[in-house]
Design brief:
Chain A: Pfam families: Dak2. Chain A: Keywords: Kinase, Transferase. The complex is a heterodimer of chains A (210) and B (128). By secondary structure, chain A is mostly helical. Chain A has nine helices and two strands. In chain A, 71% of the residues lie in helices and 2% in strands. Chain A has a two-stranded antiparallel ribbon. The termini of chain A are close together. Chain B has a single domain, classed as Phosphotransferase system, mannose-type IIA component (Rossmann fold, 3-Layer(aba) Sandwich), CATH 3.40.50. In chain B, β3, α3 and β4 form a beta-alpha-beta unit. Chain B starts with a strand and ends in a 10-residue tail after the last helix. The chains are: A mainly alpha (210), B alpha/beta (128).
Chain lengths: 210, 128
């Protein structure tokens, strides 16, 4: 699926998409949270870009680990430890690989889900980033089972995350600042789930256009 | 003396708590991790690591936090700590009352266990 330079390309593209959607993410968060999600994500991913630009990486694990640490250190909200942990857990699945297959990608999504559950003490249905990430993983896993090609699997992951994101409108927030407004969070998309959908969408688009 | 670390989304909150506690305990080792590195509202793992480092001793360190990401960032800071992590504990307590009690206790040279016993009734169940 991807050599390290393509992984860097895909993550840079995801960072650009987050930057372009900064205002949108902040508006989603402003409706039910503390209104800083767009700024936090944009800041964190600008440091991921910096890390990718300036670093040299022996392995895919190294690349994901350093990117994750950039997120942990610079996001400034709950998304820092959560996205950071997702990247660090992804890193642990890749070990000394210098190329990522589509199966590796699905595996790292799974590991990310476990990491976020552990760090956030959260689960599906609580109106969080997991509600985009879990359906994304499940759709990708199913596409792999069906023998779909790389671009099709990435597309399935993207669509799974978007579908999950849409579903978060119906959920009552149980975690984070949005849990303070409880029932009033119904009707709004979860900003963390929106970020997940943007990132997974950007990765799919990067490889389908390549 | 037990080191006390205060983690909040707001720099003003931790400065206020330290100011209030200083009326009763001027000598206790207190380190602050309030706000983000660019001085916005939020919490910052590196600030927390540095704060722990600043007040670390064999007597141990207690970390108080306000809400949400403060706890997750404190956990991550402990995961990556250079010091002996077994002597550093994040505590579940009402932030203002718990921190001030602990700072005063530390000033009186109470041990980690004694301080934890004094704040045991102030739990808010914020460490799921």
């Amino acid at each position: 699926m991807a050599e390290l330079n393509q992984v860097i390309g895909a993550l840079n593209h995801a960072a650009d998409i987050i930057e372009n959607n900064k205002q949108h993410l902040t508006e989603l968060d402003g409706a039910i949270g503390d209104g800083d999600h767009g700024i936090n994500m944009s800041r964190g991913f600008s440091f991921v870009k910096k890390t990718l630009d300036e670093g040299s990486f022996e392995t895919a694990a190294d690349l994901f680990k350093k990117s994750g640490m950039a997120l942990v250190a610079h996001v400034g909200g709950a998304s820092g430890p959560l996205f950071g942990t997702a990247f660090l857990r992804a890193s642990m699945t890749l070990k000394d690989k210098t190329e990522i297959t589509i199966e590796d990608y699905i595996n790292l999504l799974k590991a990310s889900i476990e990491g976020i559950k552990m760090r956030g003490k959260s689960d599906a249905g609580e109106k969080t980033m997991l509600d985009a990430l879990i359906p994304a993983y499940e759709a990708g896993e199913q596409a792999v089972q069906q023998g779909k090609n790389t671009v099709e699997v990435l597309q399935a992951v993207k669509e799974g995350s978007e579908k999950g994101l849409k579903e978060t409108e119906k959920l009552v927030a149980k975690k984070g600042r949005a849990s303070y407004v409880g029932e009033r969070s119904i009707g709004h998309q979860d900003p963390g789930a929106a970020s997940v959908a943007l990132i997974l969408g950007a990765i799919a688009d990067y490889f389908s256009e390549a | 003396m037990v080191g006390i670390v205060l983690v909040s989304h707001s720099r003003k909150i931790v400065e206020g708590i330290r100011e209030l506690a200083a009326q009763m305990a001027k000598d206790a080792p207190v380190a602050l991790a309030g706000g983000t590195e660019d001085d916005r509202l939020g919490t910052d793992m590196n600030k927390i690591s540095n704060a722990v480092h600043d007040v670390y001793s064999e007597d141990g360190v207690l970390v108080f936090f306000d809400m949400g990401s403060a706890y997750m960032n404190a956990q991550m800071a402990l995961d990556f700590l250079e010091e002996d992590g077994s002597k550093v504990e994040i505590v579940d307590a009402a932030f203002v009352e718990g921190a001030i009690t602990a700072i005063v206790d530390s000033g009186l040279n109470k041990s980690m266990d004694e301080i934890k016993a004094d704040i045991a009734s102030m739990k808010l169940g914020k460490m799921p």
